[in-house]
Amino acid sequence: MKLTIFGTGYVGLVTGACLAEVGHTVVCMDVDQGKIDKLKAGVIPIWEPGLQPIVERNVAEGRLRFTTDVEEAVKHAEVQFIAVGTPPDEDGSADLQYVLAVAESIARHMPRYRVVVNKSTVPVGTADKVQAKIEQILAERGEAIPFDVVSNPEFLKEGAAVGDFLKPDRIIIGTRSAKAQERMRELYEPFNRNHDRTQFMDVRSAELTKYAANAMLATKISFMNELANMAELLGADIEEVRKGIGADPRIGYHFIYPGCGYGGSCFPKDVQALGRSADQIGYDAPLLKAVEAVNNRQKTTLFTKLARHFGGAEALRGKTIAVWGLAFKPNTDDMREAPSRTLIEALWEAGAKVRAYDPVAMDETRRIYGERLDLALCGNKYSALEGADALAICTEWQQFRAPDFEEMQALLRAKLIIDGRNLYNPDRLTDDGWHYYSIGRSQPQTSSPKEPNESMPKPEALGC
Question: Which of 10, 53, 76, 374 shows its CA 20 to 30 Å from the CA of 408?
């Protein structure tokens, strides 16, 4: 089939590349000329494992191309995907201006029947707004061209998006149109060879399914973080609790890992947007508000543990803190709503300096924060430790899981780790003289912190 994708961000580019990979002919359209020029030159704007070779292969074989020409994009294909951003508005609701702008563009240029597919994450009722916008523009044109609006939400995990798309666990399609169903079934036929993963439903149910999925996963995370905070006060080990409840098949092990909070482009935005949707229909949804509140509080836990260890936030002035992990999760460079940002900004506010390392998010960090005297972006995980008073771990990258603790001891001024992802054995580190603070597990005594390693002079500058 011929397909058009509006938007070359995370969802649009992965969708376009993967649909081309199974044999469709795809045009990806974006209004950002700079982004399109880079894509034509083979430069991928996001860091996603496996995406680069798929884009390169399908461009070379003629199944995938990029354009800024709206008319060309609309005329290319009967099926038009909307995959543009829906950032939070001032009140937390999803901003639909880009979605509706694409709908208007399609309506102005469509020569005949089109299936308009909402791939963007949008609130319930968005398909109705897209329908109304297209009808309005067609009326202005004096045309009576038939069309259908379909909801086809994405379920892609950053860091595993290519695999999620090519081997989906479900394909949700919202439409009551037999003609649109036929087109969508044909489009996704390559993904249903072994068994049919497609679930057809009405449009509003499909729109709600996306928000419901992300809100459920976010709820599990916040629930475990709430329990972790209780476990610390009760003298329990949340890791043992996690194993105990995860063994129950009704609960399972997915998304019950305690930590320093969730981030990214989906969970924070979608939980907030679903809550605002509840407000708009006059329904009180206290659980959604609690999930968001718990997560916002959890993002402060690493700073709180550091401040408590040193005797208060004011004692952090002049200290240097090493940070491992800047992306909100492994296998991505996405720092949107990342717990690392909450920690780093709190440290700066307290007068501390930061030496940071992330395997792929260094450029994104520079883009966000620019050049600062109180921030050093280091070449590897060990150079970030040089002369630092403590190490804070924000992201569970594989290369952080089994470090050389002897080398770490030689580089740090004090044997102090604040672990937001529970990577290490607390008993082993405590026995070896480390002050090791994790999430929801027994913490070391902090009434008399160990003296810093005076053999390692504190750096005057933060260069790496």
Answer: 374
**Is 266 designated active site?**
yes
- Catalytic choice (266, 378, 394, 464): 266
Could you read off the pLDDT of 113-162 as tens digits, one per residue? 999 999 999 999 999 999 999 999 999 999 999 999 999 999 999 999 99
> What local confidence, expressed as pLDDT, does residue 78 receive?
98
Query: What rounded mean pLDDT belongs to the chain?
Result: 94
Q: What is the pLDDT of residues 351-360, one digit of tens each?
A: 999 999 999 9
pLDDT score for 99: 97
With 70 as the cut, is the pLDDT of residue 6 above it?
A: yes
Cβ neighbors of 205 (< 8 A, separation 6 or more) are 174
